[in-house]
Amino acid sequence: MERGKLIADRYELIGRLGRGGMGEVWAARDHVLHREVALKLLDLDGIVHADLPRRFEREAVAAAQIVHPNVAALYDRGTHDDVLFLVMEKVDGQTLTARLQAESPFPLPRVVAIASSVCAALEAAHRAQVIHYDIKPHNVILTGDGLVKVIDFGIAGFVQATFTVARSSQLTPAGTPEYGAPEQFLTERGDERSDLYALGGMLFGMLAGRPPFTGHNSIAVVRRKLDEEAPPLDAFRPGLPPEVTALVAELLERDPDRRPQSAQQVQQRLQALLASCAAAEAPTATMPPPPRTRLMGDTQQRAPRPPSPDSWNRASTDETPFTADALLPRRFTNDLDIEFARISEGTRLSSEAGPSDLAGELARGECTEVVVGVYAEQPGPHATPENPVYVSVQVFAFPDAATARDAHKNLGDGGGAWRLTIWSAHDGGGLAPCPDRIRRSLRWRYSQRVHRYLSVALAYRADLTNDGSIQPWLAAAARKAAVSAGPQNHHGD
What we know:
The protein is of the alpha+beta class. The chain folds into three domains: 84 residues, Phosphorylase Kinase, domain 1; 189 residues, Transferase(Phosphotransferase), domain 1; 166 residues, no CATH class.
């Protein structure tokens, strides 16, 4: 297929979004309803089976019955030049796979929120008697406005049914080895509980930073799933609430009868975990309301009080001095053992942190200041002075943890990187916003919220390279810078 081709005299191919073993996904334009859609072309590689058209029709009609905000809608289906196609809602955002590569492992509240949204999608699908069969991070999209969307409902089930009937000796397409349930790789198709197993695998991956089972190839992963129990989650991420580790362990049971028996049951437990996370982050009832953050240059208000020994990381306190020294380390070593040193710093009004729409959102959240630090270093064995990596860290202060959490959904987790100013070191000291060309260079972003502080770090290379080999350096630098920033760093770098 090529750009500009018209499918079924209606859908114009605009650009390829992805390619897999079963075909391609394209962004397309619906010339009848005048809207953007996603078009999935299913290439069954010469499989001939009289029942396929009817089965394809049945699966598509079933998937079209799922109407839920966490499910990408299925609009149409058909055949074009002996290729099956499905027309779906075009979801703009990042796959969970991409987010995990950039930010893994996730904080617990975020993991539970994403899992709850995926589980809600499973509830809706299972009510429509549709099983996904391939729940995995790549089939979960995080949109710019904070929604979680599950894609390919009904498609994975159709593909599995096709291969189970037409190619009984080739079971790999029955699911993704790292996340699919063990029974999917035997002679069974599995059922709703297979989707719940995959949800458990995603929970494990988001919290541990890796799937529960790994191996040097797909066959090795499947063999381990069939022969071994899933490893305990707390072996990879200690300190999690026992309710979390217990739920993940039950979802990853090899025997479907020992797993939770419905998505509704799992959702009830996830909702209880969400409530626990919210309660843990909320300020205590006996704590007095925090004072408003002091505006820069406001000499009428008193200086910050001396901190109590345990106050630096307490939710919703205003005891951490809002200065670069208090909130940013002077140096840090990133995940690739590259040392970064702060070469410029400054404190700015939030109105200077970006364009007007960002400034307005910060003002509504009662954020009055932003601390900025810029770091530079030469990454890798072939570095030269002309192409250092710069890391710009911004720490936003909000009046309380709840407001910071809302801001994180929009500024931190909501795909709003394009609205955040990238700062660079300015000749003669101080900071200056980078020009637009920096925004178009290869860069990486990481965000983290600690109580009422939201830290966002952007790493980019000075030579504006598009060479993807720099990506691990940028990702490691941005992640470590954001994690290093915050009130916990006041006592040392």
